[in-house]
Specification:
Aspartate Aminotransferase, domain 2; seven-stranded mixed sheet; four-stranded antiparallel sheet; alpha/beta; 2 domains
């Protein structure tokens, strides 16, 4: 990858030339193509979508719907109408819980998720189970950072692409209505073998609804929703070089068509009478009100930028970044640093969460900030996972296409300063 060329596409590095940004898991930086598209909408055709019969409104609608087509092709959706725009991954997951979960979950049913989930894919289902009297089951993780799928300890290896058959009889039953899992852990970096898990789970219960949080996966690796076999998948624009305030929910059309709306209001209505209302078909049934028009339109340019570079190249670059980081940590700090998650680079995304001696993660982050190094500190909206790991907080460095080995070297020097300052 031509890192210098790509880095030049991000205006923030021109304004802050000393910046070492290692927090792309929280939100990615934005290339000029994205910000230019935002300004294009506001300065050239700033009108509402679907409502006007005049030229600039029609132009805004055309650009907005083109994004839906681009996103559908990016994830290989079967139909364009399967792509719904929301405000975030969080809203997408809550939409499914509200419009599908509250329709199918009853007392005595089971809702299954894992302890490695982000709160948006944990609390959402926990509360649904509590409200409806269902059993809330949580899959544990191994000490190595993999989902504990009940395999022998020598077999707990991520089976990506191996075709390994999983036995989930101890997790999924005929009573299980929803299985909600993350594709890539925002703390451990673990890439879960979802295709194999979904196949095994649906073999036990073909009616099972599988919901995937792909917020950390979509920006960093190729995801094919048809090949994956899930029923719903959600992600966010702002983690994949796009604007904040835009999320995406993909769902199988036949399921979306059966669901009741999440919000009621303008543009999701077909006909309204005093005694009844007829709603539009998906996706517009779930897009009430005026959306973040500029943000959706700009997401299209973020996707095109990623496609120009190539998702395989981005994935390979991040593997190299993680490998370099793990080796530098080991050589420089040895056992003083505890890296969370799998030891195998192939099993993890571009995320390295760690603890450093007895130093609190917030102190580490503050001292690194003095060196213009941005990392995340805390429990990263994954408190149950941190409790499972026996720690209150962790520091997290995460990489993207604009990061280099030099950034890692600066991180290591910054951690040496942490040690010298706090020892």
């Amino acid at each position: 990858m031509d890192l210098k060329s790509h880095k030049a596409d991000f205006p923030i590095f021109k304004n802050l030339p000393g910046l070492v940004y290692l927090d792309s898991t929280a939100t990615s930086l934005k290339p000029r193509f994205t910000t230019d598209k935002l300004m294009e909408y506001y300065t050239q055709y700033s009108a509402n979508v679907f409502r006007g019969v005049y030229k600039i409104s029609e132009k805004a609608t055309e650009e907005y719907e083109e994004t839906r087509k681009v996103v559908a092709e990016f994830i290989n959706a079967k139909r364009i109408e399967e792509v719904i725009f929301t405000r975030s991954t969080t809203e997408s997951l809550n939409l499914v819980a509200y419009s599908m979960g509250r329709k199918i979950i009853n007392e005595g049913d089971e809702v299954v998720t894992s302890v490695m989930e982000h709160h948006s894919n944990f609390v959402t289902w926990q509360q649904l189970a509590l409200e409806n009297g269902a059993t809330f089951k949580v899959i544990d993780v191994t000490d190595e950072g993999y989902l504990n799928l009940g395999l022998d300890s020598g077999q707990v290896i991520i089976p990506l692409g191996t075709g390994m058959t999983l036995n989930l009889d101890n997790i999924i039953t005929k009573k299980t209505k929803i299985l909600a899992l993350t594709y890539l852990s925002n703390v451990l970096g673990t890439i879960n073998p979802l295709k194999e898990i979904i196949q095994a789970a649906k073999k036990i219960n073909p009616k099972l609804i599988v919901v995937i949080d792909a917020a950390q996966a979509i920006p960093h690796m190729k995801v094919d929703v048809q090949d994956l076999g899930a029923d719903f998948l959600s992600f966010s624009s702002h983690k994949m070089l796009g604007p904040t305030g835009v999320g995406v929910l993909w769902g199988k059309y036949e399921l979306l068509d059966e669901m009741f709306p999440f919000n009621y209001g303008g543009e999701m209505i077909q006909e309204v009478y005093i005694d009844k209302t007829i709603f539009k078909h998906p996706p517009h049934k779930f897009e009430a009100g005026t959306p973040h028009i500029a943000g959706v339109i700009a997401l299209k340019e973020a996707v095109r930028y990623l496609e120009r570079i190539g998702m395989d190249k981005i994935r390979q670059h991040e593997k190299e970044m993680v490998d370099y980081t793990l080796k530098k940590f080991q050589i420089t700090f040895g056992k003083k640093i505890r890296v969370l998650g799998p030891k195998e680079v192939k099993d993890r995304g571009g995320i390295v969460s760690f603890t450093f001696g007895n130093y609190h993660a917030h102190d580490i982050a503050q001292i690194l900030d003095e060196e213009n190094i941005c990392i995340r500190a805390g429990h990263h909206c994954a408190m149950p996972l941190h409790q499972r790991l026996g720690i209150s907080a962790s520091a997290r460095a995460s990489f993207y296409l604009y990061n280099s080995f030099e950034d890692v070297d600066k991180l290591v020097r910054g951690l040496k300063k942490v040690e010298n300052t706090l020892k």
